[in-house]
Amino acid sequence: MKPKLFVILGLIALPIVATVAMSSHQAIPAKTDIVNVNITKTDIGKYLGDRALCLKVKAKLAANSLTNISTSCRKGQVTLSGIVATWQKRSQAAALAKEVDGVKSVINKIIIVKPKQVPVKVIVPSPVKPAQ
């Protein structure tokens, strides 16, 4: 019976304590400054154009099995980043990106990391000795 009484008293006292505690705090005045943002259709078109350009470059790279490469585009400038195994793949990625319509320049930040070769241990059986 006593635990129920404590729960009931707690439920009654909680709103009272919260009201008293909150009355000592002052509200933060809201800023009334209105920021004028001018977004035009050309801005949206440029953004969508950059996204479309990145998708075209990404598709061209994927068609040539270069899938570990990320692209970012801004105003026709394409930045390539990622990891490939050979210098030829790095050069190929840049050349493919330059072939896409709308690409003005390519920044190649692709890193070459050669895959680790796992040493193979060859076990050669010892020759069988003839029975005597």
Can you give a write-up of this model?
The chain has helices at about 1-25, 40-65, 85-100; strands at about 70-75, 75-85, 105-110. The protein has about 130 residues and is of the alpha+beta class. It has a domain at about 40-110: Histidine-containing Protein, Chain: A (2-Layer Sandwich), CATH 3.30.1340.30. The chain has a 3-stranded mixed beta sheet. Strand 2 (about 75-85), helix 3 (about 85-100) and strand 3 (about 105-110) form a beta-alpha-beta unit. The protein is flat, with a radius of gyration of 33 Å. The relative contact order is 0.10.
User: What summary fits the major beta sheet?
Assistant: 3 strands, mixed
Task: Determine the strand fraction and express it as a percent band.
Answer: 15-25%
State the CATH topology of one domain: Histidine-containing Protein, Chain: A
Shape: flat
Query: First CA to last CA: what distance?
Result: 97 Å
Write out key terms for the chains shown.
single chain; 132 residues; alpha+beta; Histidine-containing Protein, Chain: A; 3-stranded mixed β-sheet; 3 helices; 3 strands; 44% helix; flat
In brief:
The protein is an alpha+beta fold and 132 residues long. 44% of the residues lie in helices and 17% in strands.
Fold blueprint:
Blueprint (H helix, E strand, L loop, with lengths): L1 H22 L17 H23 L5 E6 L2 E8 L2 H13 L5 E8 L20
Parallel strand pairs: 2-3
Antiparallel strand pairs: 1-2
